[in-house]
Amino acid sequence: MKIILFVSILILSACSSAQKSSEVNKAYVSSARYSGLSCESLMREAENIRSREPAIAAAVDKHYKGQKTTEVVTWLLFWPAAFWLDDGSSEANRLSQVRGELDAIRQAISQKKC
To answer: Which residue segment(s) compose the domain that 46 sits in?
Structure first.
């Protein structure tokens, strides 16, 4: 009986749509947005964005871990509430945007041959 309960919890906990930071893909950001900047400005902007990325990734991972724990408890105590869990899309979207901006800056740096 305990095995069935454990397997059920494991399967149901895999149903969450929350993502780890490593699962978040970068958003498309056009490098044309950065084409007017000098090489020095591009490097400064890239460093600024790079410094923000770890904090955002940590927030996404923290939310993911919290959601998984909450989801297991929810399924055990009151399963209908599991359908209203937060998927963390706002943090994931911010991380995706930051990664896209970094990629666009790298493309602009490459085009300018900095």
So the answer is: 24-112
